[in-house]
Give the backbone structure.
Amino acid sequence: MDTLKLEIVTPEGQIFSGDVKTVTLPGSEGEFGVLPGHASLVSLLQAGVIDIELSSGSHEVVAINWGHAKVDEKSVTILADGAVSIGGGSDSEIANSIETAKKLIESMSDSDVAIATATAKIESISRVGKY
Amino acid sequence: MANLKEIKRKIKSVENTQKTTRAMKLVSTAKLKRAEMAAKQSRVYANKINEVLSEIAYKINQYKIGGIDSRFFEKRSAIQNIDIIFVTADKGLCGGFNVQTIKAVRGLLEEYKEKNVKVRLRAVGKKGVAFFNFQNIELLSSFSGVSSAPTYEKAQNIIREAIDDFISGATDKIILVHNGYKNMISQELKISDIVPVEEPKEIKVESKSLMELEPAEDETILESLMKKYFEYNMYYALIDSLAAEHSARMQAMENATNNASDRVNMLTLAYNKARQESITTELIEIISGVESMK
């Protein structure tokens, strides 16, 4: 199975780096998914969540406020202004990171719809308990 | 006896200097840790954004994607005006740190003078400003008080004018010179052309597809990415330079402390010799006095 090399970097450092099966990005024109072999693309990202499907099949979620994504056939590079990885070893850690992620998105986005969509997504992920 | 006193005074003075240099070293070590962290964190982002931009530059030049303001990317055949932005420290006492940057800038000045290219200088940091003022070399703009506490806003201020001039066509190229942090004991001079964006030295992935921009109808995406690229490069140069400054100062002060302790040893030896000499003289005087009384 083909994989994509995904990298998420912020001015505070690297958030994610690794091979993934697919990734869903919050583009400014709407959400879009990227699979290996995607055509080259540079896109603006808005506040929202990045859903990463690892090659093992499990999911990882990263919330960003805004940034740019550069996509080509084999790799995806995301330059985000601020990003919070949602996850952690324990329930309280996860709850904590969800809280920070919500704040991050609220601080950047001025449209209520975007905030609502993003928070709903984060919450649904936390409810399922699998991220 | 006068000699003894004088040596004693000298020892005291050297010891005081040593105290100062040791304290400065400790301060720099503490500051270096913070600056180093900041530089390391931002390095990933700075490298990535440069990589992305250079790939975009390659694609734009390769496929001539229409409608894009390629002024940022195209190679100029004739370069007539250049802006050089250089970063020095606000303070001295850091060995050859500032001198290295200044030398590099002068080297560039001469190199472009031969080619009949007009160079304008933008200086950051008191030391660089002072040097070029003293040499009567004109600085287009100068910023001080920035290099010791860099923030993103300050970096934006510095680079804004340069970029505006580039966009309006007043300059054809912008070069950024700063002395960067390599490791605890060494610095590395970095000279980089910010615009036009350099193409990657090697093409890692040969991709066949054209590059799409999204949202496609306006060019704001490239514009905002370019803006981020300029500002972040400037910001990174500032924090990288700060980390390098502290590491240079730490080393310079370490050397100074060592030299001072060598000097104290030498002076102590001289002092002891002088003391012995005076004791010997006194003894001879007493003995010869006793002998003459016999």
Q: What stands out?
A: The domain at 2-19+253-293 of chain B is CATH 1.10.287.80 (Helix Hairpins). The CA atoms of residues 104 and 273 of chain B lie 49 Å apart.
